[in-house]
Amino acid sequence: SLAIFPNKRFIRLPNVVEEEKLPVELNRTFSPDTKLPHFIMPVRLCERIKGIMNFFKAIGSENVKRAIFDILGDGNDEEMIRTFIRENGYENNILLHGFCNMETVNGYYKNCDVMVLPSFSDQSPLSLVEACCKGLPILASNRCGNHYETIEYGTNGYTFDPDNHREVKDAFEKIMGRRSEWKQMGEKSIKLFEHNFKQSVVLPRFIAAIENS
Asked: Is the N or the C terminus of the chain less surrounded, counting Cβ atoms within 10 Å?
C-alpha cells in the first residue's frame, strides 16, 4: 500500500560560495577564436561517479582536439585516466592539474571559457554555483541536482544525459557553435547566481521565511 504524507512547507537554503574568496567575475574576457578554448572541469578523479572518460568518449576524438580541458582534482582513478589520455594522444588537450586550493581554482576560473561537469551522480555540486558566480557558460550532466537553478537550457548552457552519448556530443557541439555568444551566456549565469545563490539575497530570504513560518 502507498503511504500518504501531508504536504510540508519547505524553507529553502541553497548551497552558497565563499564570495570573499570567489568574487563575481564581471566583464570577463574569453579566448580569441584563433586559440583553442579552455574548458574547466573541477572534478574528483572517480570515473564511476564523475564520468570523465565517458564524456570524452561521447564527444569523440575530433571534438576533444577542438579544446583544452583543464581537470582540477585528484582521486583513485588518476592512473587509469592518464593511461586513457596517453593511449588516445590527448596529452595536449586533456590536462590533469591535481588537487588545487581555492586561490588556484579561482585563477583557472578567471582564465577559462566554459565549465563542464559530466557526472553520473552529483547531489548538489558547488562547482555549478561557482561557474555561475564566475560568469561562465556551462555544460553539465542532468544528474547534477542543482542544474535547475544554475542552467537555463540554451540560454547560459546545456545539460545532457551522460548515458546518452549522442546527446552529450550534441550538447558539446551546440556550445562550441555559439562561441561568439559566450559572453552573453556568461552574463546570464551571473544573473542566475545573483537571484538564486548570492548571500545578500538568499540569506535575508531564508531568515524572512523562518520568521513567517
From this structure: N
> Which grid cell is 137?
557558460
- Residue 137: partners with Cβ closer than 8 Å, 6 or more residues away: 113, 114, 115, 156, 157, 175, 178, 182, 185, 186, 189
Q: Count Cβ neighbours within 10 Å for each residue of 113-152 and write b for 16 or more, e otherwise.
A: bbbbbbbeebeebbbbbbbbbbbbbbbbbbbbebbebbbb
Global pTM? 0.88
- Residue in this structure with the C-alpha cell 561517479, named with its chain if needed: 49
| CA–CA dist 72, 88 (Å, integer) | 20
CA–CA gap between residue 183 and residue 49 (Å, rounded): 30
pLDDT in tens, 36-94: 999 999 999 999 999 999 999 999 999 999 999 999 999 999 999 999 999 999 999 99
9-38: pLDDT as tens digits = 554 555 677 777 888 898 899 999 999 999
